[in-house]
Amino acid sequence: MAGAQGGWVLTATARSPTNIAVIKYWGKRDETLILPVNDSISVTLDPDHLSATTTVAVSPSFDRDRMWLNGTEISLSGGRFQNCLREIRQRARDVENKEKGIHIRKEDWEKLHVHIASYNNFPTAAGLASSAAGFACLVFTLAKLMNVSEDAAALSSIARQGSGSACRSLYGGFVKWVKGEAANGSDSIAVQLVDESYWNDLVVIIAVVSSRQKETSSTSGMRDSVVTSALLQHRAEVIVPSRILQMEEAIKNRNFGSFARLTCADSNQVINTVERWSQFEGAPQVAYTFDAGPNAVLIAPNREVASLLLQRLLFFFPPPPDTKLEGYMVGDTSILQEAG
Ligand code: ADP
Ligand code: DP6
Ligand code: CO
Q: 244 φ, ψ to 5°?
């Protein structure tokens, strides 16, 4: 390692947008490597509004790796940060900065420590995929600083080990995370379906209703689902593969009708609507239940509540013309036809 001894610092800064899944990643088959149970598709947002900006500095005067997130120091001891740092360090190459008189040799990187500072320009850990922007940006910036030559696909596979959704933020436009088959995760990578100019009249509106940190992290939420939900396997094996094909077709054809139908079907907003309403002080209790598939069965205790619930649902989810919303009463088996 050559250079003006003692005081030199070399930095790299990058910015990565978040992405919003339209066919969701939910459930892991490998918790350490972060390998998903299904493919997913997302749209990458523009970085002016929802992005992470990360600076990584390296200096011989740093005695350990450290990180600050939104100005507060956080621990790097978790496996996810360590895995990303290790994978990038392994691929580090010679770096020469003539201006500063610095020459870092490939093998020096193992002894050098980094200081990382990252800021999100949107709420962190509040359900807006800060982990996606954050880990994509961390991996990209480390790779820049350490002169890593890997392409975006290889970097996506490293970002995935920080947070699954992060692999999709290495590309703009519409991106698919292919779940892959290999046990070591080598083929679990992001691929760009179309770039950001392809369907550029689409507008994504983010309504930040609450910027509070969510009570259940994505990681533990999906872990619980894998353990407790018998439907998750059916979703991963039957429902999502067909939705992925239809979604790719909708994006290719810029077919908004089909895109919207699939996006809504894959989301769980009905559950949230019902749950929030039921938690509200004084609100009537209602129940929901799902069979395999997106169709919600809602149960209200009486006609008054049923009518309120229907009004609310129709307000939030106006049905397409051919949809039939039906209310059934619980009762005896009714005789539809008298024995003739
Ligand atoms: P979100 O819905 O925001 O993605 P998660 O629970 O999935 O919430 O992830 C939140 C975690 O992501 C944070 O606790 C932190 O570990 C990580 N994270 C968020 N922003 C960044 C960032 N800019 N750089 C690195 N890691 C980040
Ligand atoms: C609902 O990528 O945050 O946003 O891999 O455990 O870090 P970890 O989870 P994360 O989960 C994202 C879940 C989701 C759907 C999606 O982005 O596909
Ligand atoms: Co996340």
A: -60, -45
Per the CB < 8 A criterion, the answer to whether 299 and 288 are in contact is: yes
CA of 106 to the centre of ligand 3 (A): 33
pLDDT in tens, 194-228: 999 998 887 777 666 556 777 778 888 788 777 76
Helices (H) and strands (E) in the chain, counts: 9, 15
Mutate to test the pocket of ligand 1, among 50, 65, 163 (most ligand atoms within 8 A of CB): 163
Q: Which of 124, 128, 208, 210 to mutate to test the pocket of ligand 1 (most atoms within 8 A of CB)?
A: 124
SS3 104: strand
Phi-psi group of 157: left, alpha or beta (phi > 0 → left; psi -120 to 50 → alpha; rest → beta): alpha
Counted residue by residue, the chain has a size of 340
Give residue-wise pLDDT tens across range 302-312: 777 777 777 77
Instruction: Express each pLDDT in 143-162 by its tens digit.
Output: 999 999 999 999 999 999 99
Q: Complex ipTM, two decimals? A: 0.99
Give the C-alpha separation, 251 to 74, whole Å. Answer: 39
The DSSP symbol for 169 reads G
- In the structure, ligand 3 is a single-atom ion and the residues with CB under 5 Å from it are 131, 218
Residue for token digits 């209703």? 209
- Give the ligand at the shortest distance from the Cα of 122: 1
Find the residues whose C-beta lies inside 6 A of ligand 1: 52, 69, 118, 120, 124-132, 134-135, 138, 163, 217-218
